[in-house]
Fold this sequence. Notes:
Elements: H1 20-25, H2 27-39, H3 49-62, H4 64-74, E1 87-89, E2 96-97, E3 102-103, H5 105-109, E4 122-127, E5 134-137, H6 138-154, E6 162-166, H7 171-183, E7 186-190, H8 196-206, E8 210-214, E9 216-219, E10 222-225, H9 227-236, E11 242-246, E12 258-259, H10 260-263, E13 275-276, E14 280-285, E15 295-299, H11 300-314, E16 322-325, H12 332-338, E17 346-350, H13 361-369, E18 373-377, H14 378-387, H15 391-394, E19 402-406, H16 412-422, E20 424-425, E21 431-432, E22 435-438, E23 440-442, E24 447-451, E25 465-466, E26 472-475, E27 486-491, E28 501-502, H17 509-515, E29 523-531, E30 537-542, E31 547-549, E32 552-554, H18 556-563, E33 569-574, E34 577-578, E35 584-585, E36 587-592, H19 600-613, E37 622-625, H20 640-646, H21 651-654, H22 666-676
Parallel strand pairs: 4-17, 6-7, 6-8, 8-11, 11-12, 16-17, 16-18, 18-19, 19-22, 36-37
Antiparallel strand pairs: 1-2, 3-13, 4-5, 9-10, 14-15, 15-28, 20-21, 23-24, 24-25, 26-27, 27-29, 29-30, 31-32, 33-36, 34-35
Helix pairs in contact: 2-4, 3-4, 6-7, 8-9, 14-16
Amino acid sequence: MTTAPQQPADHPEPLWRPGEDRVARAQVTRFQQWAAERHGAPAAVPGDPAASYAALHRWSVDELEPFWQAVTEWCDVRFSSPWERVLADRAMPGARWFPGATLNYAEHALRTAQDPARAGEPALVHVDETHEPREVSWAELRRQVGALAHRLRDLGVRPGDRVSGYLPNIPQAVVALLASAAVGAVWTSCAPDFGARSVLDRFQQVEPVVLFTVDGYHYGGKRHDRADVVAELRDQLPTVRAVVHIPLLGTAAPEGTLEWDDLTSGTAEPVFEQVPFDHPLWVLYSSGTTGLPKAIVQSQGGILLEHLKQLTLHCDLGPGDRFFWYTSTGWMMWNFLVSGLLVGSTVVLYDGSPGHPDTAAQWRVAERTGATLFGTSAAYVMACRKAGVHPARDFDLSRVQCVATTGSPLPPDGFRWIHDEFHREGPDGTVADMWIASVSGGTDVCSCFAGAVPTLPVYIGELQAPCLGTDLQAWDPHGKPLVDEVGELIVNNPMPSMPIRFWNDPDGSRYHDSYFEMFPGSWRHGDWITLTSRGTVVIHGRSDSTLNRQGVRMGSADIYEVVDRLPEIRESLVVGVEQPDGGYWMPLFVHLVPGATLDDALLDRIKSTIRRQLSPRHVPDEVIAVPGIPHTLTGKRIEVPVKRLLQGTPLERAVNPGSVDDVRLLGFYEQLARERR
């Protein structure tokens, strides 16, 4: 049996509802009207945005080819050679999109630079921990990309070659990505907080010919030198023919490396290699907690279309917007952020700690840069709530139109906190509030399955709707679709940004086993979700780390939402461990705030809170104070490796140490398992 611990009420009141003017001017509204006239999309239902979007979504998944053709026309995708058919083969895996077509991602990202009226406007706004913005104009960005692409070709880089970056979230990383795409090379990147082993686990798989590096970076008010790591990368990547040095800390270029300024000082016009639609654009990586990270290859055309759809129709971004998302180059959200250039938005790059010099740092960046879409993690929102941050009171965030979150489900308290902080009633009766977009997708598609829709209401704890072109379903173990019940997250039709393959997976078996083993022909993502009868989506957490008591499956996210709200708890981790004798042990690990003690009173409060707000089944067998909660390098709590450690798996087999933010923390769980045995 599968149950949802906190099902939404049948008819809850929305937390936020867009005004009529916002609905009317939203790009998705105008797209629907246009697509109805030209491509057979259903017309909008007057006065009913929810019914209008539901009809548009149904058409977009039932009629994939007209929908995606409409997206290419609406977003003015420039094919240098025409396509023969939108979708020649819809099999999963193996879908073939736009055969015959050629194009270039970087050409689309830089086309605003050719508008004389906008060439001098900022394409990028870069902020470090000083919080002082520095701008790069469209014209300057195009010049640097043209110069670097020319030099990459001089270095022998050809279409299909891999170009790697060990770089923070700085303008040089964007230039290197776009120059690589212009040449038809395949980009891949890691953030400089990754250690050498973590980077090599990724880059050695794809064998790059060029490596862009920094000498170090600043984080949390401290200087972090990476010269030794870079030296090890150079030694362990034999395919690298050229290393490019970016002196972020001001050090001299090591012997045998090239200077960034020398490679980008030219004035060569960009030459954009016209590549097939399914030509590789970049390689992203899974977290790699239990082995080598999966090297996920996505295509130039697939990413171009999917990101244009997301950014225009879902995020409602365009010229005049400033797009900020707190991220690093080691997370797919960085790639998604850079794609803001595709729609003519200014992209805000923040290189620094999310909480330096204080927890309000990201809001300060939004104020200084005039961000219109503010993207962050659910964990940051909850940290601000716990720290007593008041963003709308303490900062001028009047330009922010949307607060978006991802990385993990935004708890109901997070929705309420954002709403309460931004809700203002003026003396004339006008109300100011905030569109809250909790979104969910994955590195695997570098996009969202469900999330932002500017014309729909927002309900507490729920994502607004499945995304257009995404046949999102919840299935029971037998493949039966469910409504208002928890099921496996299934995507039942191909998306253009689905991987074209995994690197070093010649027969496609690893790709197939990752998504299509349980339900052949349908993408199983590994999340528990509920699709409500109102069309909204609830994310319950990973299905591969599901808690299962007496046949009842429970999502860990529901427990985190309740426990992490307690003022004494900094963060928590829950796992369910099947015992050799057939029993089931469900411990809850809590990382306490400084000064807090896990005494009987706090223990009773944790258990009673869980019992009252969730159910008796959710109450853990034990509550254990820990020195810290381990995370992946992109900040997600590590559940499955901890479970494996507690089941007696040796540390070296339970987890890839290079994928963990602080591998020393795992020693606690390993010792606990040893004591229990």
